[in-house]
Please model this.
Amino acid sequence: MASEDAVRATNDDASQCKRFAVEKGYWEDPYISLLTSRPQAKHAPEINRGYYARVHGLRVLLEHFLKLTECRCQIVNLGAGFDTTFWVLKDRGLAPKSFIEVDFPILTAQKCRLIKSRKALLEKIVNEAGEISVSSSELHGNNYHLVGANLQNLSDFEKKLEESGFDKTLPTVFVAECVLIYMEMKRTEELVKWISDNITTSFFLNYEQVHMADKFGQVMVDNLKARDCTLPGIKACVSLETQRERFLSRGWDGCDSLEMTHVYNFLPQKEIQRIEKLEFLDERELLDQLFAHYCITWAWKDPTNIGLAEITF
Model:
């Protein structure tokens, strides 16, 4: 298993990269500065474009799901870190019936403290009586829940969902951003199968590395190892086929996967033209290599045919 400290550090890096890109004007997010400190170093234009594609690619599919279910659904954000999606969706009138964030207790404790001390965050999650239930590392509001659990402990994860009022009969989307690769393959497979077996109508959105067996992929592996970040789930990140097989062999009805190169090309071109004017990109080659080594995979289980198989870019 990857070092928990090293995995938590990847959350800090990702959050700061997102904040840097927001402050550069790539997209609007009034909440990220309330949860994340300003990065000390500048980030290269290809990193900013990569995060733009990551955030907006996931958002396109997530919003399709929310509109299809008319928000009568649940979102479970796995390894949520300092993510701001709940507040952004709430502002857009797209909040689901329940939004549950799960991460290591040490991270959820930090996020609890920040939420409690930031009025703009807190006022969006209080219940009708203006109250929330909060402990040192967990928080339960009207339709927002933040809980601490190790995703490799399935019984603990299930217990935390139950404590959050999780409804197995509601359509539910699970979101994971660079999370599964840090988990033992066996544990990820158990989690994916548990969702398929127990949630009546489910959708899974996974942003993660791909093509990790080639030369550029090995450089990425070596860089992470140097930071004490081993990748026990890397076997599922060899190709788009292995990404899909993780779901298709464990009871899911269907699955699709796209390299970020294609995701970027499917995003609204007017917006792409706008963000490409923000910073001069010296060479396109590195951006292309980065895009080719990340992907979005989405899987669905839809026994009542509400239309999950139709969700795409």
